[in-house]
Write a structure and sequence with these properties.
11 strands; about 250 residues; alpha/beta; globular; seven-stranded mixed beta sheet; Rossmann fold; single chain
Length: about 250
């Protein structure tokens, strides 16, 4: 341990920057030792880490909604040439910068909303979109912007999910009077939270598993792996023609 970052100094600084949602282990100091989810996000990360290449040498990474930087640091340790973490919360960004400095990792962190990713003007080999979608007022727009502006190849997506985990095979179209499919618990559903959920007023949505998958496909991402119930690993593909439609469909010509 360096003289600069002793455990005592790390603990003091971590307490000053709290509260933390990422329970990081910074040279033996836990940033959120009483986290209600325990060793989070590492306990979740271990369930899908194997679906991401172990060697990211030469690759660029964008971590959208990076929070305190756990995932950004994990991928930098896999050799990524450049890692950029963005978040709209200055407190989380301060935590991330501190954690990366303690760990000796060169990672850039910037204040930016997912709705503004086009301002980056570049694409990344790997984009992380973890723990963000259900906090957004306009979730499908966010996925559209990621596809349009920053994803070059791989997307790792995770969202809080509630409801059925079934993935039923659906028809591409149904007659107007055929309503039964909507009553199937596995039909893609995006549950709207009007007030608050888990004491968090920024939780706006809770998709079921089929809805997460359908939203990804609709915005042009091909799902290549589903290693954990809330995690989808995707490749960027062409967007379906229907995704380019106007607010109201144009008249046939």
């Amino acid at each position: 341990m360096t003289a600069e970052w002793t455990q005592e100094r790390i603990r003091e600084r971590a307490q000053a920057l709290g509260p933390w949602f990422h329970n990081l282990d910074l040279k033996g100091v836990r940033t959120a030792p009483d986290h209600f989810l325990g060793d989070y996000p590492n306990v979740k990360w271990q369930r899908f880490a194997g679906a991401i290449p172990a060697d990211l040498t030469g690759k660029t990474v964008l971590d959208i909604g990076c929070n305190a930087g756990f995932h950004a640091m994990a991928l930098k340790r896999r050799g990524a040439a450049r890692v950029l973490g963005i978040d709209f919360d200055e407190d989380y960004l301060a935590q991330a910068r501190f954690a990366a400095e303690v760990e000796g990792l060169q990672i850039e962190f910037r204040k930016l909303s997912v709705y503004d990713v086009g301002a980056l003007g570049e694409r990344f080999d790997l984009v992380l979109f973890i723990g963000v979608l259900y906090h957004l007022r306009h979730p499908l727009l966010a996925l559209d912007l990621i596809h349009e502006h920053v994803a070059r190849d791989m997307l790792v997506f995770q969202s809080l999910q509630r409801g059925s985990d079934a993935m039923p095979k659906l028809q591409d179209d149904y007659a107007f009077w055929e309503t039964a499919p909507f009553d199937d618990p596995g039909y893609p559903k995006l549950h709207f939270i009007e007030h608050s959920y888990a004491h968090d007023p920024t939780n706006w949505w809770a998709p079921n598993a089929a809805c997460s998958a359908a939203m990804l496909r609709s915005t042009g991402f091909e799902i290549t792996a589903h290693p954990e119930e809330e995690v989808f690993v995707c490749r960027r593909a062409a967007r379906p023609d229907a995704a380019y439609g106007a607010v109201y469909p144009a008249r046939p010509r």
